[in-house]
């Protein structure tokens, strides 16, 4: 309590504010008590919500990949350009399954390097 807080309730409701609230309650009487309680509860709820969000952010894994946006565009362009000869070569050597393997590989490559929704 030496830091101006009361039993783990941090800066959301400092000790001096709690004391002032109690003084107002004593001065104005019980008719103002519900408003005082609502005010303190709102401040405590806001602090709990802030701490919860901070904890979520601390434990949230990074969403951005290590691939630069320019590299993503380059991979997309190169995969489109290379799709034509790779399709022809795979089609002539392996037929339908070769073409399918080439296109599945290209789709997976571009899917792996797609931009995240957070970017």
Topology (elements, then pairings):
Layout: H1 15-28, H2 33-59, H3 69-94, H4 96-112
Helix pairs in contact: 3-4
Biggest sheet layout: none
Principal-axes geometry comes out as rod-shaped
Q: Beta-strand level of the residues, as a percent range?
A: under 5%
Identify low-pLDDT runs: none
Helix content: over 70%
Secondary-structure element pattern, one letter each? HHHH
The chain-level mean pLDDT equals 79
Number of DSSP strands?
0
Give the structural class.
mainly alpha
Tell me the Rg in angstroms: 31 Å
- Distinct helical segment count: 4
* Distance N to C terminus: 44 Å
Descriptive overview:
The chain is mainly α. The protein has helices at residues 15-28, 33-59, 69-94, 96-112. The two termini are 44 Å apart. The mean pLDDT is 79.
């Amino acid at each position: 309590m030496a830091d101006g807080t009361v039993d783990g309730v941090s800066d959301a409701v400092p000790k001096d504010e709690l004391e002032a609230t109690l003084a107002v309650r004593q001065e104005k009487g019980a008719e103002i008590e519900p408003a005082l309680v609502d005010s303190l509860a709102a401040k405590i709820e806001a602090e709990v919500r802030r701490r919860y969000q901070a904890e979520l952010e601390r434990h949230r894994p990074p969403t951005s990949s290590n691939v630069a946006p320019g590299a993503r565009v380059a991979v997309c362009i190169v995969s489109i350009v290379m799709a034509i000869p790779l399709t022809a070569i795979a089609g002539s050597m392996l037929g339908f399954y070769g073409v399918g393997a080439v296109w599945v590989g290209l789709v997976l490559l571009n899917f792996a390097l797609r931009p995240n929704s957070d970017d």
